[in-house]
Amino acid sequence: MKAYVGVTDGEWSDFLAQRPEINEVNFWRPSSEHGFNVLVPGEPFFFKSHYPENRIVGGGFYSGFARLRLSEAWTLYGEGNGAASLDGMRRRIGFYRKVTIAPGEDPIIGCILLRDVRFFPYEERPEPPRDFKSNIVQGKSFDLGTHGEAEYFQYLLSRLIGHEVDVDLSVSWHRPGPVYGDKRLAPQRLGQTAFKAVVLNAYEGRCAITGSRIRPVLQAAHILPLPKGGEHRLDNGILLRSDVHTLFDRGYIGIDSKYRLMVSPRLRDEFGNGNEYFQCEGKEILTPRRRRDRPNAEFLEWHADTVFRR
After folding, report:
1. 139, 44 in Cβ contact below 8 A?
2. pLDDT of 298
3. 170-179, 181-190, 201-210: which is most confident
4. Structure confidence at residue 259 (pLDDT)
5. How far apart are CA 61 and CA 117, in angstroms?
6. Are 16 and 82 in contact (CB under 8 A)?
7. Cis peptide leading into residue 225 (ω within 30°)
8. How confident is the model at residue 172 (pLDDT cuts 50, 70, 90)?
9. What are the helix (H) ranges across the chain?
10. pLDDT at 187 exceeding the cut of 70
11. Which string of DSSP letters, residue by residue, matches 55-114?
């Protein structure tokens, strides 16, 4: 297991510490130049305050990274961005960029997305790891399987989860939940809001079937629905235009395990149209660049066997 200790803005952490009902947060970065691939979903991310306090103030579990426009981050996370308003968030981003961001501007920011967040009472905030140097500006990763302070990180995890746990630090930890398919290959589940963000990011803001880039009508669809045992996982998601999402959920269109579009004849029989889909039948849909982010073949086969109207 790996963990990351990120240096937090005091205004951001104080704002969220006063709102314990917010479970998912955006640990945003003012620039989107650098991604974040240190952790896998489910691994812990801790918040460290600046000097002179220099304490671990809380943490959460990593859900993913996305490059989002300021307005998109606000629409998805609202106060989970650590600000009371969109204007307040814009002001903080401008402060770190050392520029004034006008109300009409919509810059792209880096978003580290976290779930199951908890902040510690002020008088119960632990010191940071002993090898966390004072000149570290953004943060530092730790391999807990080889790190010398295993008991320290066990303690931090217990504080974060809310009760004492004995975790095997040689493997990734995640909260239990239903997993469909081979558990050995299953990436960890994401937060509900993060699911929308990382699917949008992985598909580069394009509908997988139509190629539409009109973001207000794009939706993160689940291949295996949550009531059927699906989870908020990137490989269980696909970005679809809202009307295409409806057709997919109702089985009028499907996707085979080789990412080719399937169109049910019942679309034409029942409604007398759907030519735009029949023209694309058998063609490969748009998929994320990284193979591991693409739809899980088992989930697609479940949809084809159970939902698709043959």
Report:
1. no
2. 96
3. 201-210
4. 97
5. 7
6. yes
7. no
8. low
9. 10-17, 70-77, 86-97, 150-161, 192-202, 242-249, 266-271, 275-278, 297-306
10. no
11. -EEEEEEEEEEEEEEHHHHHHHHGGGGSSSSHHHHHHHHHHHHTSPPPTT---EEEEEEE
Look at residue 180 and tell me whether its pLDDT is greater than 50: no
Q: How many helices (H) and strands (E) does the chain have?
A: 9, 10
Q: For residue 183, is pLDDT > 70?
A: no
User: What is the pLDDT at residue 188?
Assistant: 54
3-class secondary-structure state, position 201: helix
Structure tokens at 69: 């426009």
Nearest Cα neighbor of 6 from 33, 39, 42, 41 is 39
DSSP state of 172: -
Both tokens of 183, joined, read: 């558990």
Cβ-proximal residues to 273 (8 Å cutoff; 6+ apart), any chain:
267
Domain ranges within the chain, ordered by starting residue:
2-124+142-161, 203-306
Give CA–CA dist 48/94, Å, rounded.
22
Contact call for residues 267 and 190 (beta carbons, < 8 A): no
The more confidently predicted of residues 145 and 121 is 121
Pick the CATH number of 2-124+142-161 from 1.10.860, 2.30.130, 2.60.40, 2.40.50: 2.30.130
Cα separation, 188 vs 114, in Å, equals: 13
- Contact of 239 with 196, CB cutoff 8 Å: no
Whether 275 shows a pLDDT value over 70: the answer reads yes
Least confident of 3-12, 99-108, 141-150: 141-150
C-alpha radius of gyration, the chain, whole number: 21
Three-class SS of residue 2?
strand
Tokens, residue 304: 């084809």
Percent of the chain whose predicted confidence (pLDDT) is above 70: 94
